[in-house]
Amino acid sequence: MWTRLALRIWTALVLAFLFAPILIIMLYAFNTSTIQSWPLPGFTFKWFPETWNDPEVRDALLLSIKAGLIATAIALVLGSAASFAVHRFRFFGREVVSFVVVLPLALPGIITGMALNSFFNFNGINLSLWTIVVGHATFCIVIVYNNVIARLRRTSSSLIEASMDLGAHGWTTFRTVTFPLLSTALVAGALLAFALSFDEVIVTTFTSGAQNTLPLWIFGAIRLGQRLPEVNVVVFFVVLFTVIPVTIAARLTGGGGVTRASAAAGQVAQKDE
Amino acid sequence: MASGTIQTSAPRGAGARISAALWRRPWVRAALLLTPPLAWFVFIYLASLGILLITAFWRINSFTTNIERVWNLGNFRTLLENATYRAIMLRTIGIAALVTVTDAVLALPFAYYMARVASRRAQTALFVGVLVPLWASYIARVYAWLLIFTHDGVLNWGLDKIGLGPVTLAYTNTAMWIVFSYLWLPFMILPVYAALERIPDSYLEASADLGARGGRTVAKVILPLALPGIVAGSIFTFSLTLGDFITPFLVGGTGSSFIGNVVYENVGVAGNIPFAAAFAIVPVVIMGLYLLGARRLGAFEAM
Amino acid sequence: MTRTGMGAGRWPALAALGAALILLTAACGGGTEGNGGGGGGGGAGQPPTANMAPPTSVGAGEGKLALIAWEGYVQPLWTKTFETKTGCDVSAKYAGSSDEMVTLMADGGGGQYDMVSASGDASLRLIYGGDVRPVNVDLIPDWKNFIPQLQSPPHNTIDGKHYGISLQWGPNTLMYNPQDFPTAPDSWSVIYDPKYKGKITVPDNPIQIADAALYLKATKPELGITDVYELTRPQLDAAVALLRQQQPLIRKYWGLASQEISMFKNGDAIIGASWPYQESILRSNGVPIASTIPKEGATGWADTWMMATNAPHPNCAYLWMQYISTAKAQALQATWYGETPANTKACPIMDQLDKGSCAVYHANAPASYFDSISFWKTPIADCGNGETNCMPYSEWQQAWTTEVTG
């Protein structure tokens, strides 16, 4: 009983830790001064229309969304393909593949960025939206791969076999059995991948040319220090807007009780594989 | 025994024939599935990593600053012989390790509560609580921390209110440690949560049946089963800290440079790519070894 | 985790992968790769683009202009008028240091960028690296209104060929909080004084070594420093030693102007080396602040708009040069940023925009003021007096990152 209370308090404290800076950011979107100091010197709404009307912000936001969507789409296709292959087949170099696929997330971003940058230079490829997409897709693939393979490991393969036994060929089975089982893992993977792409600054610094994604714009906006309230306004809205899709995704992929029971079943099933 | 109607009335179109053919040749399906992602990885990612690796063994001509493709170990020698670079490496690894431990400690009770104690609704709320901060810009969050740490900032204001003297946290390694722990905490919570969530209730019941009290169950059942999740999370916290240069730049003071700062300066600013590549290999080697160890501990399944 | 028989297959697979990579990279050409920037070029020899003939007239604008600039150099306050007048849509990539600009301009701007606002310590590297091309100053009417020292300065004019047009200039000042320093400090010694430990800030830039050299020039004449950018090994070592002594006193080496502004506003620093920009912003935010140029003098910077060798929009680039050198544009930028215009006719307009600003930013100062500033220039091995034992910039960078900032 005391442990429950202690756990509750700890959780609350960690949540406060996680959100205190977010609250500060949202508060300072109303800062009258462009320099951040405590306490808040004054309260104003003027940054909201100013940010909305700033073409640089709009262009950066648009580019971030575009790059994120394309990278996530590529990641969904390639990541699930790779996880299927690794999960279902025993092939030459399987261990290597599962090791290599983790690298883009496990190796620091600056290395991926540097490597891709020199790769593009080497091959005379101009830095553009597509090079940004390549950089992002590389680590987004890993996230989708991880999510899907984790889900594949937890689903019993007997469902697929049963479907085949009942006469459905490959594509129908995929469409009616496999895909629904994976859908929530894909959604969660896509959401996390998009989130990482949206806030990615290190790899993007090395793979973008004269374009700015939102994080790059923010990185530039902090130089002179006159744009910090605009940055806070942007974050204010991004945070508010993402609560909805994140809540939906959390509902889809959560459900502790269900998975705890099926985890036991899954582990038993896995031993049969 | 299958009923005759199901088998014989299945459509035998081209799609079904391809599907059947593929079923009989699993390696074709494997190849089809694997080739696009593998091609991406080998020809783009691994190839570029390879080029980077090789560049570390070259050098630049200090007069013309052109890269000379002369094989030599000069960059590595500089790395190891220069006291400052050694200090930078140790500092980076040290703080990365500290951050990992801090995050593991913070995450474990939180993830346990989230996975096993919280109601369905609370769980969703906690999930949202962990993921939403990832969407708030990294830089904006760091600046919020600067506001907390700065000399006339939130922390000292609060300390003053309760009668304690001001602390100098801004632009120190301690500040960096706190900010890093904050930034990567969600990446540690999620895998630990996934690992804890998968423990079947029956395990805990069995442990209680066998006479183990709370603490013993935690130590002997929960922690070992959570370990893959902790290790998976640590891959993120360790590597993200190892390669970061923005937080040291914004939050660090004198003597706070990380490997990432030296790499960034040598690439973007000094144009000494071979040296930057050599320095960048250090985290690659460290993470490579770390990953091999993590695989043994089953972290790859827990991610 | 299943342990299949594939364990044995792991190593051959890795080896195959490794071999493929090595083949891939070995197959890709030989020879040296170019890298923009001839830092240690020694000053001898012609710049690679010297024979690129500049145009004799300016054609129609191409509709776009891509600039690499110091933050604050491409503000809507003056670019909006330019965009409406010429139809050239301006986009800017901001750089925080000369080194960054040189790297961005690699390969003549890479076909992406048209112009760069390079300071004197970047311009020579760009010229000798072949990344910028000569411009025709006859096409820029306001050029003849520039102060004589900035019409053809050595940092952007070689053998009579202009590799850009001067823009603005300013000193690196000693900025302080007047609440802590009731009288203006009269010497740079104050930033080397342990009394202010933990409250001092200076720029995180290897060129800062020149500031230490400037101080030593006055306090240790036996070192024989004449030009603070032409330092022999012993002179460089002495400057670095001074900076190492200073290191424990420094709160933080500022890399961005905003960092210094934040430090002064929030009480983390009370004295330091700065640009007029920070003072201007702090003052407009009601922070008590002042600055001075101590008796030992000051280093400074003079910026040039240089044109990329592979500029994709050359006509818009010329239209920009014509516009940004007009008295009005110069005055707008000077008063907003806090620097001194190259155009002598900007002074009255500055006073219209911000009374007294012309004098504050020394826009009408006599030539002696200009001459008292040691403007940034790239340190090269050629000492300019027949000797070639001066330390090139790469040595400065090495010393700065390994011995000073660490």
Written account of the structure:
The complex is a heterotrimer of chains A (273), B (303) and C (406). Chain A has 273 residues and is mainly alpha-helical. Chain A has two domains: 44 residues; 225 residues, MetI-like (MetI-like fold), CATH 1.10.3720.10. Chain A has twelve helices and no strands. Chain A starts with a helix and ends with a helix. Chain B is 76% helix and 1% strand. Chain B is flat. The longest helix of chain B has 35 residues. Chain B has 303 residues and is mainly alpha-helical. With 406 residues, chain C is an alpha/beta fold. Chain C has two domains: 237 residues, Periplasmic binding protein-like II (D-Maltodextrin-Binding Protein, domain 2); 139 residues, Periplasmic binding protein-like II (D-Maltodextrin-Binding Protein, domain 2, 3-Layer(aba) Sandwich), CATH 3.40.190.10. Chain C is 34% helix and 15% strand. In chain C, the strands form three sheets. In chain C, strands 1, 2, 3, 4, 7, 12, 13 and 14 form an eight-stranded mixed beta sheet that branches. Chain C has a four-stranded mixed beta sheet with strand order 9-10-8-11, with helices on one face. A two-stranded antiparallel ribbon of chain C has the order 5-6. In chain C, α5 crosses α6 and α10 crosses α11. Chain C is globular and about 60 Å long. The N terminus of chain C is likely disordered. At the A-C interface, α4 of A face α1, β2, α7 and α8 of C.
Mean pLDDT of chain A: 83
Helix content, binned percent of chain A: over 70%
The strand count of chain B comes to 2
Instruction: Summarize the main sheet of chain A.
Output: none
Q: Kindly state the mean pLDDT of chain B as a whole number?
A: 84
For the secondary structure, the number of strands of chain A is 0
